[in-house]
Design goal:
Blueprint lengths: L2 H18 L7 H37 L5 H11 L11 H37 L8 H19 L9 H42 L7 H24 L3 H6 L3 H4 L1
Helix pairs in contact: 1-2, 1-6, 1-7, 3-4, 4-5, 5-6
Length: 254
């Protein structure tokens, strides 16, 4: 087996066990793994953003493709940094105004088209096409979704009192909401369980002889490290414990 694969297996098993050690309590192993994960994530994100923004979106278009007007966007980006200079911080308002205005003008039509118009079209199309073919499962699902959308909207419509048919529709909307929340929660739990099973599969694989019994060795080292940490914590919290145990504490004799 290649040394790089073996080293990667030991690192993966060690960091996984570091994170699982939180099941015992908050400890230095967990904090090390947590800080390492956050630090690497932030470092990778910063480098990736720098490459995507400064190299791909600015340097390459300007230097190699001659799109000099991209410098206007770079200037607006630099003006945002003037927020850290109180005397000229008002210049950042120009950039924020352009970002909000341009972003709203571009995003609002797309959101209306994708989240409203296309959703309505996709919901009603199977029902409208039901007359051309037999009423099947697709039409039933579309009708069920349509009923759920209407009843949920009625539930959140507080301008009129919920009585009679409105109350019945609102009650049906509550059932649809509860089903949606339950399904979303179940999907989230199953997704996390899938990740957990994947980590256990890796730990079992890395516990084999081919990987030098990485999981077992690291588990023993972490358990021993937690034992030493607990002993040290107990000694620091109760400095007279050793003296009492040796019988040299005068208060213990009384």
């Amino acid at each position: 087996m290649a040394p790089s694969v073996l080293i990667g297996a030991w690192v993966a098993a060690g960091l996984t066990l570091f994170m699982f050690s939180f099941l015992y309590k908050d400890n230095p192993f967990f904090r090390f793994g947590e800080h390492l994960y956050v630090g690497i994530s932030m470092g990778y994100t910063i480098v990736r953003i720098y490459y995507d923004v400064m190299v791909k979106s600015l340097y390459t278009p300007v230097a190699q493709e001659g799109k000099w007007w991209f410098l206007i966007a770079a200037l607006l980006g630099l003006l945002i940094l003037t927020r850290f200079i109180p005397k000229v911080s008002w210049l950042s308002r120009i950039s924020f105004a352009v970002i909000v205005g341009f972003g709203s003008g571009v995003a609002i039509p797309r959101i209306i088209s994708s989240n409203i118009l296309q959703q309505v079209q996709g919901t009603l199309r199977p029902i409208l096409n039901a007359g051309q073919s037999s009423f099947g499962m697709a039409q039933f699902n579309a009708l069920l979704i349509l009923i759920g959308v209407i009843t949920v909207l009625i539930y959140f419509f507080f301008s009129i009192e919920h009585k009679g048919a409105i109350q019945v529709a609102a009650r049906i909307g509550i059932y649809f909401l509860m089903i949606n929340f339950g399904a979303g929660f179940g999907y989230t739990v199953m997704g996390r369980m899938s990740l957990l099973i994947g980590r256990f599969d890796d730990l079992i694989l890395f516990a084999s002889r081919d990987y030098g019994y990485a999981s077992l060795v690291l588990l023993g080292l972490i358990a021993f490290g937690l034992f030493l940490w607990e002993r040290r914590s107990s000694a620091l919290s109760d400095p007279d414990q050793d003296r009492r145990a040796a019988g040299s504490d005068p208060h213990a004799e009384g």
